[in-house]
Specification:
Strand content: 5-15%
Order of helices and strands: EHHEHHEHHEH
Number of strands: 4
Helix content: 40-55%
Distance between the termini: 14 Å
Strand order of the largest sheet: 1-2
CATH class: Alpha Beta
Length: about 160
C-alpha cells in the first residue's frame, strides 16, 4: 500500500519492557502513557495526510479509544468530539486465533521482550472489538497472503 508502518512495541518505555521481560503483565497504568504516545504519532501522520499502519496490541476497548482520541478519551470515556482535534479515523484489525497458534509464533520470535508466559495474561485482558467500533476480524488460521488480502480489501472499501 505504500503506507508508513509503526510497530507499537518499539515505543514501550524501558520500564514496561523490563516488567515484561520479568514475566510481569502490564496494567492500565503502564499502558496508557504508551497508548497516548502512539496516538500522538498517529495524529502527526494524519495531520500530514500520511496513511499509516500501526501494529499494536490494543487489547481493551478503552485502549482503542485512547488511540482514536488521545488522553481526553480516558476521562470522557468517549473519543474526542469534532473540533480542533477531531477523533482519528482508525480501522482496527483484530487478528484472531487459537492460543496454540499464537504461542507457536511467539516461541519463534527471537530477541523480543515479551515471553511466552505472558500470553495467557493477554488473553485474560482481551476485549475483542465490537460494534460500534470500526473493525474487522481476521483469522490467524488463514495463510499470510489471505490475511493481507482481507485487510487490504477492507482498507480499500473504506
Amino acid at each position: 500500500l505504500g503506507w508508513k508502518f509503526y510497530d507499537a512495541d518499539d515505543y514501550h518505555p524501558l520500564e514496561n519492557k523490563k516488567k515484561m521481560e520479568e514475566g510481569i503483565p502490564l496494567n492500565d497504568e503502564d499502558r496508557i502513557p504508551w497508548l497516548c504516545a502512539l496516538h500522538d504519532i498517529l495524529r502527526r501522520e494524519d495531520t500530514s495526510r500520511q496513511d499509516t499502519i500501526l501494529a499494536c496490541s490494543a487489547l481493551k476497548k478503552m485502549y482503542r479509544r485512547v488511540l482514536i482520541g488521545g488522553a481526553s478519551a480516558i476521562e470522557s470515556n468517549q473519543p474526542e468530539q469534532p473540533g480542533e482535534n477531531p477523533a482519528l479515523k482508525i480501522l482496527f484489525v483484530h487478528l484472531d486465533g487459537p492460543k496454540d497458534i499464537i504461542a507457536g509464533r511467539l516461541e519463534k520470535r527471537r530477541g523480543h521482550f515479551m515471553p511466552l508466559e505472558l500470553l495467557q495474561s493477554q488473553f485474560d485482558t482481551l476485549e475483542p472489538p465490537s460494534a460500534p467500533e470500526n473493525f474487522i476480524t481476521v483469522s490467524l488460521e488463514k495463510s499470510l497472503p489471505e490475511i493481507l488480502l482481507q485487510i487490504e480489501s477492507a482498507i480499500l472499501q473504506g
